[in-house]
Design brief:
The complex is a heterodimer of chains A (about 325) and B (about 280). Chain A is an alpha/beta fold and about 325 residues long. Chain A contains twelve helices and twelve strands. Chain B has a single domain, classed as Thiamin diphosphate (ThDP)-binding fold, Pyr/PP domains (Rossmann fold, 3-Layer(aba) Sandwich). Chain B is globular, with a radius of gyration of 18 Å. Chains A and B meet through helix 3 and helix 5 of A and helix 4 and helix 5 of B.
């Protein structure tokens, strides 16, 4: 377990600062978000590599593209709700179409901002950015993995979108075993009745659900898919073939995100019974992040219930 | 600049007008009026001011030019070919399937710094390029050409703020102020006045000049930065469709291709203008 209050954004910032100390061509651009993105230390330690754009996300991405065209490796960092909406045209044209070395890093994504409401939720960012050619999409699943993603991106060229949450969350990987391999899934739990595919801060809830289901005799594999684009197609196909039933779980609208990517793959390559668990196509009531997960049936209990009902509908082994 | 050099550039601008019109006709369409309005600006930049090397188009020390009004790609392509970034024969591929000369500049074209065409993007990119040079302590400069209609995009003003905030005196914005956009007069579509004062208020050193006068342009470009510690904005008053009588100041020529007959007349007018310049020497 990480230190209290140490979430993915802090871990990402720590990894990035460490890499940037060794590589002066790494730049960070932000839009009055050095606090929310945990970049205060970066700004103090490496002011020459830090650019404040003010509350102007379009400008921040454009500036990032200009820096990258001049040989910098640029991380444009700020709240996911703004970086997946306000500046989408800049990301499409100036970053992805231009093929420049700019990473868009959205923090406090999904429903992290909870009761701040719909303006601050980002539940369609994966849907949006995974349809932009030449842009990778990465959603790290815990703080240790977030730091590894920062280190990976600090050492690799090209456009990417990263989305992380706001809070400290339980680690999904055992201490010292966190891993991130670009474009690769991680198998966190073996199982044969159902493959649960997840990413980001939904993953630890999916793991808890799998443990709960196991105590009832339902055997679920759990895969971590931090890279949504490019998807680890072979891992998904292997899991679907093995279990014959697939459930995706994510902090995103149920349409268009990880579930959408998996459904597109399976529909064409290996039609498999499937459920997509995510947030409904609506604006959510006021509540904390945890409350919203529970309200939408995305806490461990809700996930377990949905998986059990799904397997029962298939008349699968282990279903009640 | 000597009178000979000036005459050479004026004749070159006329020649490039002929080429871009011919290219637009053979390609079946293009942004005619705005290409004609900005060609004198491009000639002044590429053949007088910019420190660039067509043999080494990615040289780290080069000046940058961002064609924020990317729809005038035809003018840019003719200038880049003339400067030697790619063979002039390739201009004939414009408008044909698989050509790297799209209707807007793209990264695959030697000499093109950024893909542009969605308006309001170029100045932010220029801020990033100028900031990189400033922080690296290198002398290269960045020039960004915008249309006047483009200035309705709010992102332009975000970039304008950032440029003066960071005291980017290695950044030069140029507005091709031809007063027309696709729907009509810029002032009717969305008023920009008082434009010079607005840029000044955003912290820019403003130079106002005739953007179809190469001598004036070259002289302003020789005096950069207009003010130490501030970005420079050249407010270049131009005539849309400049050089072709029936296209001048006509919003209807924002996009389109002349007929064969119209092209013939346009070329005759441009040749007459060139002959007039030579005769005056």
């Amino acid at each position: 377990m990480s230190a209290p209050g140490f979430g993915s954004r802090q871990a990402f910032a720590r990894g990035l600062l460490d890499e940037a100390r060794a590589n002066p061509s790494i730049y960070v651009v932000t839009s009055d978000a050095r606090g929310s993105a945990s970049l205060g230390e970066f700004a103090r330690a490496l002011p020459r590599q830090f650019v404040e754009a003010g509350i102007a996300e379009q400008d921040a991405v454009g500036i990032g593209a200009g820096l990258a065209r001049s040989g910098k490796r640029v991380f444009v960092v700020g709240p996911a709700c703004f970086y997946s909406a306000r500046c989408v045209e800049q990301v499409k044209n100036d970053v992805a179409y231009a093929g420049l070395d700019v990473k868009i890093v959205g923090v406090s994504g999904g429903v992290s901002y909870g009761a701040l409401g719909g303006t601050h939720h980002s539940l369609n960012d994966v849907a949006l950015y995974r349809t932009v050619p030449n842009l990778s999409v990465i959603v790290p699943s815990d703080s240790a993995q977030a730091e590894l993603v920062a280190r990976h991106l600090s050492r690799s060229s090209g456009p990417a979108y990263v989305r992380m949450g706001r809070f400290q969350i339980p680690d999904s990987y055992a201490p010292g075993e966190a891993s991130f391999a670009f474009g690769k899934a991680g198998l966190l739990r073996d199982g044969t009745d159902c493959a649960i595919l997840s990413c980001g801060e939904a993953l630890h809830r999916a793991l808890s659900a799998a443990a709960e289901l196991s105590s009832r005799g339902v055997s679920c594999a759990v895969l971590d898919l931090p890279t949504i684009k490019p998807l680890d197609e072979e891992a998904v196909l292997r899991a679907a073939r093995l279990c014959g039933a697939v459930v995706t779980v994510e902090e995103h609208y149920a349409r268009g995100g990880l579930g959408g990517a998996v459904a597109e793959l399976l529909a064409e390559r290996l039609p498999t019974p499937m459920r997509i668990l995510g947030f409904p196509d609506s604006y959510l009531p006021s509540g904390s992040s945890d409350e919203l997960f529970s309200h939408c049936g995305l806490d461990a209990e809700g996930i377990a219930k949905s998986v059990a009902a799904f397997l029962a509908s298939l008349d699968k082994a282990g279903a009640p | 600049m000597t009178q000979d050099e000036l005459l050479h550039l004026k004749l070159l601008a006329i020649e490039l007008r002929k080429k871009l019109l011919t290219m637009i006709v053979s390609g079946g369409g293009g942004h005619t009026g705005g290409s004609l309005s900005c060609i004198d600006i491009l000639v002044s930049l590429y053949f007088h001011a910019l420190r660039i090397d067509p043999v080494d188009p990615e040289s780290p020390g080069r000046d940058r030019f961002v064609m924020s009004k990317g729809h005038s790609a035809e003018a840019l392509f003719c200038v880049l070919a003339e400067a030697g970034f790619f063979p002039e024969a390739e201009l004939a591929s414009y408008g044909s399937f698989g050509s790297r000369l799209y209707g807007h500049p793209t990264m695959g074209v030697p000499g093109v710094e950024m893909p542009t065409g969605a308006l309001g993007h170029g100045l932010s990119i220029g801020v990033g390029m100028a900031l990189a040079a400033q922080r690296d302590g290198v002398a290269n400069r960045c020039f960004v050409l915008m249309g006047d209609g483009e200035l309705a995009e709010g992102s332009v003003w975000e970039a304008a703020m950032a440029a003066s905030h960071y005291r980017l005196d290695n950044l030069v914005g140029i507005v091709d102020n031809n007063g027309l956009q696709i729907s009509g007069k810029t002032g009717d579509v969305m008023g920009l006045s008082p434009l010079a004062e607005r840029w000044s208020a955003f912290g820019w050193a403003v130079e106002e000049l005739d953007g179809n006068d190469i001598g004036g342009l070259a002289s302003a470009l020789d005096r950069l930065p207009a003010r130490t510690g501030a970005p420079t904005l050249i407010l270049a008053h131009t005539i849309k469709g400049k050089g072709v009588s029936f296209m001048e100041n006509q919003a209807s020529w924002h996009h389109g291709a002349p007929t064969a007959q119209q092209l013939g007349q346009a070329l005759r007018e441009l040749e007459a203008a060139a002959a007039g310049l030579r005769a005056a020497v």
